Amino acid sequence: MxxxxxxxxxxxxxxxxLPWAGYLLGxxxxxxxxxILLHQVLQWHHLLIAVKTPAFQDIRVQIxxxxxxHVLMYIIALAxxxxxxxxxRTFAEPGADRLLLAxxxxxxxxWHILDNFLSHWILGIHRVRMDVExxxxxxxxxxxxxxxxxxxxxxxxxxxxxxxxxxxxRRIVTPAALVLAILIxxxxxxxxxxxxxMVMVLFKPGTTVTDVFAAMEAVDGRMVWNDPSGQxxxxxLQTRGDAMQLYRHGALLVSNSLLPVGCFNWFRx
Length: 269
Known about the structure:
Layout: H1 4-7, H2 17-41, H3 59-86, H4 88-91, H5 96-122, H6 135-160, H7 166-189, E1 198-203, H8 209-218, E2 222-226, E3 232-236, E4 251-254
Antiparallel strand pairs: 1-3, 1-4, 2-3
């Protein structure tokens, strides 16, 4: 049976390997999160997209740079796993899981803070979104949501300590984490896809056909398909339209999926 002292073991009582394992794993996951989501899924930028040298404008060079970046993140994550393996005996002690998670959150946040300062504002090799006018807004959004907030959460978790409060901690942090994840996922879901001209649009109930055609005219779009209810439409923006404008004309959701939601019969159009 563990003593009261063991149950409330402070972070300083563990060897440095355990928190550093968390820092490196969190830092590596931050890089993977950025590279996979922003470089590949949303395609908001590549690592060196703002470098104007002609050689770097070749998409093959951009993809190579992204790949080398991921290799670096693999090396950092593997170093974290090696430190975690070295500290495996202390990981079974009370408080070790909390310390590891807190350190990983801090590492994740530090990645985004460092990326903003170094890549966005000092070197200027890319920004969070390269396809918008107000680039600073997106930089600051990523800086505070994925940088400052994650570091603050990790610091709070590390300071809260104590094995006795683990139940209360889970009751507070787990719902908060789920709410944050839903808010982030929802915000990303309503963003129209970059570089994709065909979108699925769900309009509000009561939207008339006249309203829909007015919306398409506003974005210079072309109707491809619609369902019998008249609420779900497939619209081709023809590379010139701004899908965000559809939200001003009665759209509830503009699909940002590579595969449109709903019936696939419109592919025959």
